[in-house]
Amino acid sequence: MEKPILWIAALSLSLGINACGPSGNGSDQTLKEETKVSAKENGEWIPLFDGNDLSAWKGFKKEQPGDAWKISDGLLYLDTESKKEGATGGDLITRETFGDFHLKLEWKISENGNSGIMFHVQDSEDYGATYETGPEYQLLHDEGHPDGKIVTHRSGDLYDLIESTKPAANPVGEWNSTEIIVQDGTLEFFLNGVQTVKTTLWDDDWDQMIADSKFKDMPGFAQYQEGHIALQDHGDKIWFRGIMIKKL
Question: What's the pTM?
Fold first, then answer.
């Protein structure tokens, strides 16, 4: 599989070229937004986090991200220490919604840490948390966190629904490459180039699988075909970089 960092480099070069020329009155920002619009229309990669800002993100049922989500050295991370001093956290969600998509990013987890990526999340007063609607790609220190002992709760799993084809996570503290693809009712997960999950969405088998899971009493779970991407605040340190998406 292609490495996300290569795509970020290409996008950064493209944005840098487009930004050359007269500036002032917000022209650089206008050019940046026009580039994003063009990318969406042409089915190209859209940067959701380019190492500089969180303009593509908000908090769940909030207009701004929690201030415990911070940027340093081009990385997005959850500063759990600042939460002890009163900083707000909470799950991040994209401002935009996505139906069929291809998401790429890199992540690393703290020792004994737990987090996740959810998709088709509904940002609605009808739901109290992102996990009530969004299926989850699990991010975990498999050897250190108690969930690592549970089948379907390890890194690269479709959380509590489908076990990875084989373990593929790098050792704790090292970067991992993740891809999520939703297209024409098919869901695929990749972890470090290994396809860990492939399944059909929204058919009878899907509904039965949910009925046999911990989500059985959440009527909105995994039923929506469009929604937000979410990065989970599970209370543990997590780092992300090179987040990008393509509409399919």
Answer: 0.84
